Amino acid sequence: MEFQIAMTGFVALYIFMLAGFAGWVIIGGVPAILHTPLMSGSNFVHGIVVVGGIFALLNASTVLEQAIGFFAVLLGAGNAAGGYAVTDRMLAMFQVSGSKRHHAKSRHAKAKHTRKV
Amino acid sequence: MLPMIPQLTIGVTDLAAAFLFMYGLKRMSSPVTAPSGIFAAGLGMLVAILASFLYAFSVGAAAKPHLPINVGLAVLALVVGGGAAWWSGRKVAMTTMPQMVALYNGMGGGAAGAIAAVELFGGKAQGSTQLVVTLIGALIGAVSLSGSLIAWAKLDGVIKKPLRVWGQQAFNGCVMLVTLGIGGYIVFVVQSGAAPLLAMSSLITLFFGCALVFGILMTLPIGGADMPVVISIYNALTGLAVGLEGFVLQNPALMIAGMVVGAAGTLLTLLMAKAMNRSVSNVIFTNFGAAAKHKHGAIKGSLKPVQAGDAGIFMRYASKVIIVPGYGLAAAQGQQKLYEFVKLLQAAGVEVKFAIHPVAGRMPGQMDVLLAEAGVPYDIIFQLEDINDDFAAADVALVIGANDVVNPAARDDKSSPIFGMPILNADKAKKVYVVKRGEGKGYADIENALFYADNCEMVYGDAQAVLGKMIEAVRGLGLSAAA
What we know:
The complex is a heterodimer. Chain A is mainly alpha-helical. The longest helix of chain A is centred in the middle third of the chain and has 29 residues, at 63-91. Chain A has helices at 9-28, 35-45, 49-58, 63-91, 100-116. Chain B has helices at 4-27, 34-52, 67-91, 97-121, 128-155, 168-192, 200-219, 227-248, 252-275, 280-285, 308-316, 327-331, 335-347, 366-374, 384-387, 409-412, 463-482, and strands at residues 320-325, 351-356, 381-383, 396-400, 431-436, 456-460. Chain B has a six-stranded parallel beta sheet.
């Protein structure tokens, strides 16, 4: 059995075309309020480059290749981890009126206010 | 069959990762599902990274003896790089988000460039197509790395002024041509087998050097206000570089993820440029603000300062208030105080809405994030096109730390450099309060006629301090009424 697919010539171009189209359509539906998390989220997604870095490093046979491969994994891991951390942090903050955190806060503010009075 | 298991596992996890990335990005299209979206994408990333260690079973004979060391190095790089970035990403203030995105993006570009470097130095890229694609990916990755680092330095205030020299663009063009020339020569040497003028490794080093220099030179003349567009371009470019290196490594997950980001980033760049009323080429190739800076039209009226407390009380008795926040609010860390004030107004029965300009903050959507961080629910936050008609019916427009995005010159003054930029019609409100640190000009360095208008009064001071005074005044009102 052979699981390796050869992605050469037109097959690769088809993959690129469909993926590009998918990206365009997916992002087209995002409201302006989410543009910053989205930029950071797509920034996270290309952190997948770390997988390529690991492949290159594992196949390294000279010190130079090892050094550059190490660099690739280091940077790729930074891209992925950093991108996830900031995106997740931003998205966790969005909430609607009357959500739990909002209520707790306004109750707190009210309590302070009545105490003063 | 047994040796096939690692390969099959990698294939399945990569497929799952590609699906999860697209599914996750799709779920990010609404604030309600967005947190689960990034989680799905994160899960995809995690399994793909873990599975990638299975490549250890299929390394070539030359790399076999080095395998234990290489695996160790990979784990070390993952822990150090991932750990440092995770820690910084968790810790940084929300106001510094644009430069963090620039930094992480540069890392991705650098990783793509480094992968290409391993392929090139190791002579692993076979065939002209592979070689050309590797070189293009290397070029884009390297430009994205150095360009993003300059963007980071600019946003972080390390580099303060745009560097502009006469003939800069022609020089940049030459650097680009030289880079392409070296790339072409590398392809020629490898294909024809001719003896190169320089050692192959020097040629490759020179190629990367030129590409990195080009990224720096291209970004240096661009002003800080345009950096969001630039970061978005580099985000798309990094995606493209990752996609191309994915082709070289025959990894469909990289190809798909990279190209999705490439397309998404391109669309996002166009949306941002449109919101600023600039074309993308205009952002990159012209020096904004340098040309029409000194053309001040005659502005009638005078600046009318008002006490913060009086303005606060006036708003307490208004029925409809629209708040226009800008970067100055975030710079003063005034978002929490602002929401406290808003809650006081709401408790008094005032209808409060937030109006967000597409480029408020330093990055589209950043102001939404900063308000969300302070606890402001997103259903009272409105985007430009949804709220602009409401200003005419509003009693008060409260402009805090924003300037250019409410400058009527964008609507009326054809000679203004921001003419044509969509603005928030704050000047249409019955009363306008502008909270500002001093009498200085905005980011675009243009006088604002709104500040001199008859219905506008200025509240000078740090946004946080001003809001504190407003809160005090309104609370004091409640006290005297009770007494």
